Amino acid sequence: MRVHRPGFVTLAVLAALSGGCGGAAPAPNGGALPAPPTASAGPLAGKVVVLDPGHNGGNAAHPAEINREVDIITRSKACNAVGFKTADGYEESAFAWSVTQHLRPLLETMGAQVVLTRSNDEGVGPCVTERAAIGNDARADAVVSIHGDSGKPSGHGFHVIVPGLIPGRNDEVIEPSRKLGLAIRDAYQAGTGMPYANYRGEDGLRSRTDLGGLNLSTRPVVFIQCGNMRNAGDAAKMTDVAFRKRVAGALANGIKNYLTGT
Ligand SMILES: [Zn+2]
């Protein structure tokens, strides 16, 4: 089994740390109880953010696992996809993983508990169904799935994908997801200088009902296509770690703005 759920490990460790104080040996400081773990402070204290770096670096080598069909409500679809790459071979999974690694500490510094849907960029999957379940099980206040797009080479810019309505299945997440999407769109444009995509979506937004990570989420969720990996200009930015750090900073601002209502 190559599916890792580091966030749950973290939850388990936190649970172990925060309980079980009764019956402890006398403290060396004269009997005062040890201080409880410091509650996280900051604007996102108490908030759970699930980050879903798209795809995985080992997917291409495991087509049978990745192409297994899963039910995403509106259709059946491959469990996961290999992802795209730039003309120079920089992989979408590596881009998404790098952004996530820069984004996670920014959110944690603001007090959020961050859960990832995968723990490295060498594994396989998990399936989109499992990725959605991780956000649901964590009762995430926001789920952000990070991707790079593959549009026509002349197309450039970014867009945010929000869940489309599937009546009776995801009615509750439509409005909060749209608010999350708008907050991320505005922060991404301001923080990276990237324009709205000129080849897909409208005003930097797009609604879809064919993505399992969106369809199956019971929590506010968006995908972001951070740029077009087949466009030379966007690709040059996405392969630059300084740009990926700006992406992380922009996404952190968008998530914070959504979660704090600013
Ligand atoms: Zn993708």
From TrEMBL:
Keywords: Hydrolase, Signal. It is an enzyme of class 3 (hydrolase). Its EC number is 3.5.1.28. SMART domains: Ami_3 (SM00646). GO terms for biological process: peptidoglycan catabolic process. SUPFAM superfamilies: Zn-dependent exopeptidases. Residues 1-24 form the signal peptide. Gene3D superfamilies: Zn-dependent exopeptidases (3.40.630.40). Residues 132-256 form the MurNAc-LAA domain. One of its GO terms (molecular function) is N-acetylmuramoyl-L-alanine amidase activity. It comes from the Bacteria. Pfam families: Amidase_3. GO terms for cellular component: outer membrane-bounded periplasmic space. PANTHER family: N-ACETYLMURAMOYL-L-ALANINE AMIDASE, N-ACETYLMURAMOYL-L-ALANINE AMIDASE AMIC. This is N-acetylmuramoyl-L-alanine amidase. It comes from Nonomuraea jabiensis.
